[in-house]
Amino acid sequence: MDTIISLEGVSWKRDGREILSGIDWEMKKGEHWGILGLNGSGKTSILNIISGYHFPSEGNVTVLDYPFGKSYLPDLRKEIGFVSSSLSRFSHIIEYESIEEIIVSGKFASFGIYEEVAKADWEKADGLIERFRLNKLKGKPYHLLSQGERRRVLIARSLMNDPKLLILDEPCSGLDILSREQVLALTKEIDRSNCSIIYVTHHIEELVEGITHVLLLSEGKIVAAGPKEEVLKDKLLSETFHLPVNVRWEENRPWISVGHNANVNIL
């Protein structure tokens, strides 16, 4: 499988309003993509289409060799891992479960364990705990974890089923700077799992060295897509964020600042 995602002429409408328009995007094996854009730019809509939860109003979609309209999409979802700060809505289900139970539940794509767990699955969960340096948290219930620890546990859980594609949707949202850097460091461990990564964020400094390509979105359209160093330019990012910005690079990470003469419309 050389092509992980193919979107051709994809548009998506909701309540008569066009949310995505004319999206042409391809993700190849070995690439890890960041997606940037303001709220309402279409990031979540693209993720929902990729995951098979929305069907495009127009265009062709193929994800992990599943052509939409010819495939059983629940099978596709089993091959995609998903981590998001929005998963906190399930906290009440797992608040008293141990991290081992939460991680192993990823095998069944459920929150809570409702099936018998094989010994090999517990061993695999232990391996993920070791890889993600969560040993000191073994046996600890979810509600006693910090936000950063919770995010690390959910990332480990997402790899339990050996996904071919992992979507990290603003995984550092709400984290302090130390917790953020700890989560970002995990991308190296994820890369060892031989799965492709989509990393969605508002903050370009989170696009660490392992993220190879970037997709910029504005008002449901693509501003630019391609290798990270070619896309993260002042002009393209200013168009994406609707205000003048400047980009600088430090230790292979991009950082952004707002132009001194920016005229921001507060209305």
Automatic annotation (TrEMBL):
Limits of the ABC transporter domain: 5-244
Recorded GO CC terms: plasma membrane
Pfam families, alphabetized: ABC_tran
Single annotated GO MF: transmembrane transporter activity
Keyword terms, alphabetized: ATP-binding, Nucleotide-binding, Transport
Top-rank taxon: Bacteria
Record localization: Cell membrane
SMART domains on file: AAA
Membrane topology term: Peripheral membrane protein
Record protein name field: ATP-binding cassette domain-containing protein
Native source organism of the sequence: Siminovitchia fortis
